Amino acid sequence: MASEVLSSPSQPDPWRHYPRGGLDEFFDARGNIRPLYRVFLPLLQGRLNQWDRRKQIADQIFHHRGVTFALGSSAERIERPIPFDIVPRILSHAHWQHLERGLAQRLVALNLLVGDIYGDQRILQAGVIPRDFVYSSPLLQPRMMGVEVPQNRWVSVAGIDIVRSGEDEYVVLEDNVRSPSGVSYVLENRLVSSSIWPQVMRSVSMHSIVEYPQRLLDTLLGLSPGTWVVLTPGVYNSACFEHSLLASQMGIDLVEGRDLVVYRNRIHVKTTPGLTPIDGIYRRVDEDFLDPLVFRADSLIGVPGLGNVLMHGALA
């Protein structure tokens, strides 16, 4: 390891167990800190117990704010703090622009693919994708064939899992487009990082992410102006914290299936004064469970009749 991060004579080498080999985003091949991470150099030369203390503070903040991830069934529910690396991953502006272009291009392709599968199926007719590959999928929803969606946008929110595979190369692990989750933890991680590294976070120029909820709302309203709600499976869902956070920051209602009802071919929210019609649902429920009359008959968290409303274009 380079001399810039070696321990002092009075302290043991903190890097003696550091794994070598493979791509390292913090150190380069010669063991020197990469330029983006040099703001941490003075802290690396400090006492290691200071790092432990910062990790404890981070866990306390997460616990106080209720930022947890639920594991197990409702009977054996365990609330755990989200995994958090006290050293944030840093991307340069150039790397982010490269990623942004690629991800935007990928979303265009995903929308065209899904739209074609549920539409003209030209990609199947051309043999680009085997027909059996599509029709054997348990996730295919045949009743949605030929259904028109707002602005022909089948994928409005996506969680694309990526990993860095080289100095300037990233690869996609999977496309989460059904009901992607995790963005609330990004928002909370930035907040906690600013709390435990105030000097570091103030010393660098960062893109703000606080506007994400507003951008999400703008995206939804772009599909259909009017009243939107966030549909959650309920408090026992592992991502319930995120559902609540996003609904609150977007200024829209958080609802469960039991809060909704179909009346005159429109979805309504049950309120104290009466039924309030809504124009769009940002669903955080997999489509299998949306409507027991159309999808899974054993769903207890769906809305009977919702599927029919969707198919008639009366809901975004």
Automatic annotation (TrEMBL):
Residues 88-315 form the Circularly permuted ATP-grasp type domain. Coiled coil: none annotated. It comes from the Bacteria. PANTHER family: BLR5612 PROTEIN, SLL1039 PROTEIN. This is Circularly permuted ATP-grasp type 2 domain-containing protein. It comes from Sulfobacillus thermosulfidooxidans.
